[in-house]
Give the backbone structure.
Amino acid sequence: MKRNSEKLSAREKRFCLMYAESGNAREAARGAGYSRPEKAAAALMLREDIGREIEAVFDSRSRNCRRMAVAGYERLAFGSVTDAVRLMFEDEPQSVGQYDLFNVAEIKRPKDGAMEIKFFDRIRALEKLEASGGDKENRLADFYGALMNSSEQSRSDSDAAE
């Protein structure tokens, strides 16, 4: 079903955003303010202009996710560890929220009262940044691969500690 005007109304745009978030056309139509959401959802999902807008929303979110991943890798690779070192030497830390612990992978306090701090691997973060200069599919695959490797590494570290 094609529409004469390519311009979407505010409610139609809201529907597209809500659909991209929930994946449920009926909920999106209800949230966008349609009085008969089932009927509206069915009609909207058949329209080409709505489909293009939903695709644009998905693409935009995907680009934002990649940007956030690159920013995170930059922070891991070049970020400061000063607050983590400061935390380690404080006798009675008051609020952990006041420290920037982004680069910290793990904090342990063994029974002897000492503190162990493990940091994320800066070299791996740099490698991921370098790899992010490639094509989009490879960058996204690298990001997911890094997440999986990190998860597996954490799991193997905790298994070894037990």
Notes: The chain has seven helices and two strands. The two ends are 61 Å apart (CA to CA). Residues 83 and 99 are 5 Å apart (CA to CA). The helical segments are 10-22, 25-32, 37-46, 48-78, 82-89, 122-131, 136-161.
